[in-house]
Each structure stands twice: as structure tokens, then as C-alpha cells.
Amino acid sequence: MADAGASMTLATISLIGFALMAGFYLTTLNALWTLVSVTVTAVLVSQLLRKLRRRDALTERRVCVLVLGDIGRSPRMQYHALSLSKHGYSVTFVGFPGTKPHQDVIGDEMITIIPITELKGLQVGPRMVSYVTKVFLQSLQLLLVLLKTDVQSHILMQNPPGLPSIVVTWLVCGLRGSRFIIDWHNYGYTIMALSHGPDHPIVRLAQWYEQLFGRLSSHNLCVTNAMKEDLQNNWNIRATTLYDKPPAIFKETSVDLKHQLFMRLAKTIPQFRVCGERPGDETERTAFTCRDPSDLSVTLTSGRPALLISSTSWTEDEDFSILLKALEDYEGFVKAGASLPSLVCVITGSADLGVCLHKSSSGLDLPMKVVDMFGCCLPVCAIHFYCLHELVKHEENGLIFKDSEELSGQLKSLLWDFPDCEDEGKLGQFRRNLRASGRQRWDQNWDQNVLPLLTAP
Q: Of 28, 148, 157, 354, whose CB has the highest number of CB atoms within 10 Å?
């Protein structure tokens, strides 16, 4: 039904275009033809608007979630889609295919994923021409995709990237009578400035575009109070703060599950294997855990290394040289005789300590990786930026550092006499604080802040 409606819509748009061109030509003849062309155009426009705004009994229970990026790398938008589904909304999820989305999203019958292609501009000529043609083609594709769907009560769009999705979404919402919600994760122009510099013409144009068209939304969400204040004070945009919270799938990992993971990793990664295995010993061992064959219980080994976890962003606002330099300093502490454990550093998994190097291009968003780590009761060392204190409480659930030297000192203090000090030292205290805080999960947070926007008249 949506495809048929889209065909009729495109036909009507074509007729309007034809009427306008005919009218332009005929107006050179006399006033009668001018009146005829204006009347025909007005009739066609009114018919088009009626078709585009044709609502049914289910319209108010349909929401489009839009991200002009890889759906699988957009966890917050996936959480939006799942929350909408839980409240009985039929969700059209539009974005680029690529990384596999969470299984809960794929298996949800209320969520329909509509893939769009990341288009490229002309590959010849100046870069500006290539960029302009890319924006034009992406706009046209997004416009057609959104017009093909059934009328939605709301379109919830992620920003960034907002070029060209903000203006296209605003246009579609205006044509179809849908309400437009922008979820501000950051500013697109500050991310562009990392590559081009803040004074580049493209960056300034992107800032103007974001500020101008960002004001046209019906509602706005943002990820920190600092961003909420910045939007209000500098762009006169009112927003509701929706902090990233871990969903229920993030929880503290049991020792038994850790052992199962480490056993799988030990098959391919030497650092997870136990050194000096004894012949005939039937005990299941890794470098971190062992399973007693008599009662199958799993315990952490007394001389195990410390497991440090970090993860990479998909943008340039993260400097991993800070971690590498801190690890060099840490090795120097060990060579000098400090009572410190060996370190195994991984990109993801269960760990003793997390490290976050996300700085934020705008200084106004928060690292989702820390949200996920806290959801697993994992203490974190995070690099300082303006609004980080809204998430990481220094000396309460983690530590904040400014450079590699400060990070290496924190690693030394946290891991001194590890694992003997694990329960009594700072690491243990941070874990207990995370457990006791009873941190709010995504579902409760979403119900309090987003659901009222959808149900408001």
C-alpha cells in the first residue's frame, strides 16, 4: 500500500512540475493562461498534500527511527527502536546496512529495518563538486525512502550526521503532518572540524546549517545537561536531556561466564592460556581462572594478570597514544621493582578495569562505552573533558586523568598488589559503589523522558 501511494505521489509531483513549466511558458501569452496554470497547480498541490497526509487508525502508533549511518554502530537508536516496540509502536528503522544490529532488534516483529545506501558524489573534478553531488543524491534517496513509508506520527532522527537528513526529514514531516524529533548526540560541525579545522568554509557552512534547521524540529533530545544548556544559550533550541543508560543486557559477569569466555579466547590468543600446565592435570585452566574437576566450581587464580579493557571510537576524537605511553610507563614501574601484575589489554570483554580515551569533539557528549562498562559494574579511568563529571565521579566510580603520565600513575595505584588488594583497594570500592548506586537502566530513563513527548497532544 505504501509503494502504491508513493507511485501516486511521484506521479502527482511530476504533474505539478509539468504544470509549473507549462505555466511559465504560457504566461508569456496572456493572463487567461496564467490563471489556468495557477489553478491547475493549486489543485494538484492540494491533492498531493491530501495523499501525503492520508492517515489511518494506526498512524499514531507508527514511528520512524532514522540514522544516516550504520545501524549496527548506532546503539542508542537501536535502544530507541526497542523501547518504542515495547510500548506498542510499529517502528520503521531507516539507516545504512553494515554492522549487524543487536539480535533483539533483528528479531522484533514490530521493527522493520529499511536499508539505504551510502552514496558517493562524482569521482571526478574538485572535491567540493563531489561533496555537493553526494549531498544532493543522498537527499533525493532519503526523500524517496521516507515518502514510500506509511504516514508516521513521529520521525526520530539522530544528529550527527545531520547533513542532509535534518532538512529532508523536516520537509517530509511538513508534507505528511508528522512530528519531528532530533536526538542530539553531538554536533556534526565539530566532528568535521577535527579533519578540516574550525575555520574551514565547509565547517562553517555545516555549523550554520545545523543551527538554522535544528530549530525546525518539534522536540529535541540531547545526551548531557551541558549540551542542553549550549543548545538553549547559543542556538535557542530547547531540549530534554536523555542520558545514555545501559540496557538490561549489560550486567556484571559471573566468574563462570568469564571462564567460558577465557577458554574460548585461549584457543586462539596465547595471553589467555595458562603457563606451565602440568601433565595429567584435568583441571580446566586459563591465565585468569580455573575449574575444579571435583565439583566444577570456578575460581579466579591468585597469580592472574590484570585485565584492562578499552574500545575504539569511529571518529577522530580519541587518542590511543595516551594509553600506549601510559603502558610504557607502567612497564617501567614493573622493571623498577613495583609489586604490579602483568597486564592483558583487550578491545572488549569482561575485565578488571576499563580505560576511556574519548574526548568529545564538542566537549558536550558522553562516551557510551563508559555507560556500558558501568552497566557491568566495571570501574573506569577516563580522560578529562568538559562535561565528563556528569557520568564519571572521580574517586567514586572511577578516576579521571588528563595525560599519559597521570593515567600510568592511576594504573599503578589501582593495581598495586593485585589481585590481593582487589576487594579492599580502590578497585573494590569503586565496584561496590557501582553496585550500590542502583544505576537507572535505559527503559526507566526512556519512559520518563521520551514517552511523554510521543503521547503529548
A: 157
What helix, strand, coil percent values describe the chain, rounded to 5? 45, 15, 40
Burial tier of 301 (Cβ tally within 10 Å: 0-12, 13-18, 19+): middle
Helix or strand holding residue 137 (H, E): helix 127-148
- Among 345, 365, 342, 340, which Cα is nearest to 355's? 345
Taking the C-alpha atoms of residue 360 and residue 117, their distance in angstroms, rounded to an integer, is 27
Using left for φ > 0, alpha for ψ between -120 and 50, and beta otherwise, residue 197 falls in left
Task: Give CA–CA dist 95/237, Å, rounded.
Answer: 25
For residue 4, pLDDT beyond 50:
no
316 close to 195: Cβ distance less than 8 angstroms: yes
**pTM value > 0.85:** no
Dihedral sign from CA coordinates of 74, 173, 141, 149: positive
Judging by DSSP bridges, how do beta strands 289-291 and 343-346 pair with one another? unpaired
Backbone angles phi, psi at 309, to 5 degrees: -120, 140
Candidates 416, 414, 383, 381; CA nearest to 399 is 381
